TrEMBL record, chain A:
Signal peptide: none annotated. Part of the ABC transporter complex HmuTUV involved in hemin import. Responsible for energy coupling to the transport system. CDD domains: ABC_Iron-Siderophores_B12_Hemin (cd03214). Residues 2-242 form the ABC transporter domain. This is Iron complex transport system ATP-binding protein. GO terms for molecular function: ATP binding; ATP hydrolysis activity. The lineage of its organism: Bacteria, Pseudomonadati, Pseudomonadota, Betaproteobacteria, Nitrosomonadales. The keyword Translocase applies. It comes from Methylobacillus rhizosphaerae. Keywords: ATP-binding, Cell membrane, Membrane, Nucleotide-binding, Translocase, Transport.
From TrEMBL, chain B:
It is found in: Cell membrane. This is Iron complex transport system permease protein. Pfam families: FecCD. The keyword Transmembrane helix applies. Belongs to the binding-protein-dependent transport system permease family. FecCD subfamily. The keyword Transmembrane helix applies. It is a multi-pass membrane protein. Keywords: Cell membrane, Membrane, Transmembrane, Transmembrane helix, Transport. SUPFAM superfamilies: ABC transporter involved in vitamin B12 uptake, BtuC (SSF81345). The chain crosses the membrane at residues 23-47, 86-107, 119-142, 148-170, 177-201, 221-241, 272-298, 310-329, 341-360. GO terms for cellular component: plasma membrane.
Length: 262, 366
């Protein structure tokens, strides 16, 4: 279980996040949505430990993040970032194998190769294995990084697992966007994995997430089920976007369509 | 997981661990062959077969007592002149190449090199300061710790230069690569200017040893010096090799490296200290020998890809081979006089550096 308790973040005299409270359970996929500059990335950077909260506490599996051993945490928590540049001409497979570093810290074992291959299969990227990462398209690179973070937390034996996705669908075509979130959904469905994803597209978030957190100006406006969040009032309050509510013809997931601007 | 068996073989070219072993063995054999060949070339020629035979008869052994005439002369040249020089060359190549590879991974920039970013310059400057301004104080230190006196100064110099460069380029735990290279150029220029100042006020005798510093040479090799460099650089090289897997994760950036369980701060500190020690100890005996740290890792990456676990040990062997070849050229090209080996490595390294720049230029669309 991931708990964010009374957490604020200020850098200099700028407050990026204010008094955030969140509890996310294993098996849950939480989508973080909000307009540009709302603090979505700052929140992920707190969750992955890149930034330390100015006040408050983030608790993973019962222990504050700051007390965790870096290596222990690396076996349970992985982050996929949006702009992931790689220095030097590593192949896709080598990149994915980097995800196994917390488990061997030296020479790869045969099982690490098997896991890397299985992770590649999961993102449908087997054919890219021996290509140089920097020559791949943006979408292919995103899939390789997804495979890498999956390989990092592949085994359930490491304990509860946390998958952080910072805009996993950026740079992807619609099919790949759905494939990526399907993977996130499947991993959450395994039961012991907590998934937190920043998703720009509300309709995508509504189709795959259990709950949606709406951020605006560094404050958490609402965290609730998809049905509660996906209302014209909620969305307009967060995004200043006048909109109407639709129902997806398959399954009835609520969807939002912008009203025409006059 | 079950599907993996039905898929194409993972590595059509062979398992990477096997490949790695074969490459390292191949390079090791090449280095040994070069050692035997280079040991025989010079004013006193020794046939390769004789080199191998004489290598089996170390000074003081029973067989050594039986040597006479031409054989004894060859044995003396081999053991007292050629071998310490070869050993120093190998260590120099290894230290510079491994440091270069580590630095490039640390900075995520293929152009980083100990002599380019001022680390060697710092070592040479402090050695120069000790030679010219040390005076009686330096003499006393030399009596106390002998051969170790100058290398310790050089090491302090390279450590200060390295820390200074990293400090200028780092803020709140983030290191800017562009700033680091620029700071290195600035520190290198400062060191060069101060070494120039030292030459200006040096006596003739001091001048000779200073000249040797700025051009680089393996000519000063003696067994005690080689032992000293082996102890200092050897340990640092091993320490750097141990970081190779962690250095791989840095390719994903510092955030991802720490998410993969690598303490980036500690990795930085370990590598900086080890690079300063490895380079400082070598430079303190040989002076500045440039471009090995750039060329050796690059040749390896071109051939086998960027995995540091293979690049670093392979670059160590390639670096040793390059330094031995350069030194062979340096002492034969204008025999009986000797060209400083630093001039040879620079003449070979600069075109390589420019070729690299042109490749990068195309990549950024110029």
């Amino acid at each position: 279980m991931l708990q964010v308790i009374n957490t604020s973040l200020s850098i200099g005299d700028k407050t990026l996040l204010e008094d955030i409270n969140l509890t996310i359970s294993p098996g849950e996929l939480l989508a973080i949505c909000g307009p540009n500059g709302a603090g979505k990335s700052s929140l992920i950077r707190l969750l992955c430990g890149e930034l330390k909260p100015s006040s408050g506490e983030i608790i993973w599996a019962g222990m504050p993040l700051r007390q965790w051993n870096l290596l222990q945490l690396a076996r349970q928590r992985a982050l996929m970032q949006q702009h992931a540049e790689v220095g030097f001409a590593y192949t896709a497979l080598e990149i994915i194998l980097l995800g196994r570093h917390p488990h061997h810290q030296g020479a790869h074992r045969t099982q690490d190769y098997h896991i890397a291959m299985a992770a590649m299969e999961e993102v449908d990227a087997i054919h890219l294995a021996h290509q140089v990462y920097s020559t791949l398209s943006g979408g292919e690179q995103a899939r390789i990084h997804m495979a890498r973070v999956l390989a990092q937390i592949w085994e359930a034996t490491a304990g509860p697992r946390l998958l952080l996705l910072d805009e996993p669908t950026a740079a992807l075509d619609p099919l790949q966007q759905h494939r990526m979130l399907t993977i996130a959904r499947n991993w959450a469905n395994k039961g012991d994995i907590t998934v937190v994803a920043i998703v720009h597209d509300l309709n995508l978030a509504a189709q795959y997430a259990d709950r949606i957190a709406l951020l605006r100006d560094g404050r958490l406006q609402a965290v609730d089920t998809v049905e509660t969040i996906m209302t014209p009032a909620m969305v307009e309050a967060c995004f200043d976007l006048p909109c109407v509510l639709l129902k997806h013809p398959d399954g009835g997931t609520p969807m939002i369509a912008a009203r025409r601007h006059h | 997981m079950q599907q993996t068996s039905t898929m194409q073989p993972l590595y059509p070219a062979g398992h990477p661990l096997q490949l790695r072993r074969n490459i390292l063995i191949g390079l090791g054999i090449a280095l040994c062959a070069l050692i035997v060949m280079a040991a025989g070339i010079g004013a006193v020629r020794i046939a390769p077969a004789d080199v191998i035979k004489l290598l089996m008869t170390p000074p003081g052994s029973a067989a050594w007592q039986d040597l006479s005439g031409e054989y004894l002369q060859q044995a003396m040249v081999l053991w007292n002149i050629r071998l310490p020089r070869l050993a120093l060359g190998i260590l120099t190549g290894m230290a510079l190449a491994v440091s270069g590879a580590a630095m490039q991974a640390l900075l995520r920039n293929p152009l980083a090199e100990p002599s380019l970013v001022g680390v060697s310059g710092g070592a040479a400057l402090f050695a120069a300061l000790a030679i010219v301004l040390g005076g009686s104080w330096m003499l006393a230190l030399q009596q106390l710790i002998g051969e170790f006196a100058l290398p310790i100064f050089a090491f302090i110099g390279s450590l200060i230069a390295t820390i200074l460069i990293f400090a200028i380029a780092t803020r709140q735990g983030r290191t800017s690569i562009a700033l680091m290279l620029l700071a290195g150029i600035a520190i290198g220029a400062l060191c060069g200017a101060l070494i120039g100042l030292m030459t200006f006020i040096a006596s003739d005798l001091q001048m000779r040893s200073l000249n040797f510093w700025s051009l680089g040479s393996l000519g000063a090799a003696t067994w005690p010096m080689v032992t000293m460099v082996t102890c200092l650089s050897g340990g640092a090289i091993c320490l750097l090799l141990k970081q190779s897997s962690a250095l791989n994760t840095l390719a994903l950036g510092e955030v991802q490296a720490s998410l993969l369980g690598v303490s980036v701060r500690r990795l930085n500190q370990t590598c900086i200290a080890a690079i300063a020690l490895a380079v400082g100890a070598v430079v303190s005996v040989t002076g500045i020998i440039g471009f090995i740290g750039l060329v050796a890792p690059h040749l390896v990456r071109l051939a086998v890809g960027p995995d540091q676990r293979l690049v670093m040990p392979a670059a160590a062997l390639v670096g040793a081979i390059l330094v031995l070849l350069s030194d062979l050229l340096a002492r034969t090209i204008a025999a009986p006089t000797e060209v400083p080996v630093g001039i040879i490595t620079a003449l070979l390294g600069v075109p390589f550096f420019l070729a690299l720049l042109f490749r990068m230029r195309r990549k950024i669309g110029l």
